[in-house]
Amino acid sequence: GYIAGATVPLEESSARYQMWKAENHMVMSWLLNSITNEMGENIMYHQTAKEIWDATRETYSNNDNPSAIFEIKRVLHDLRQGEMTITDYFNALIRYWQHL
């Protein structure tokens, strides 16, 4: 709802405005308390949970960042099992694949 945008801001004159505002602030608090202080300083002035979520996704997501995708692919290409157990090697591969 609040992050995906399904729950939209209400007009202050709406009977449910105070409930929406309290719930929105609760979600904003969860988001801000789950990130580092340095990250929070850049996004704490947004007015809604969705704005915070969108700003964080835009800033830190790798999906539309060609240089980050290239770096992950380079690491995957160069990754070797070496001294790692097969489980550790597989987990490392999975971790990088999930970033793509």
Automatic annotation (TrEMBL):
Pfam families: Retrotran_gag_2 (PF14223)
Superkingdom of origin organism: Eukaryota
Protein name according to UniProt: UBN2_3 domain-containing protein
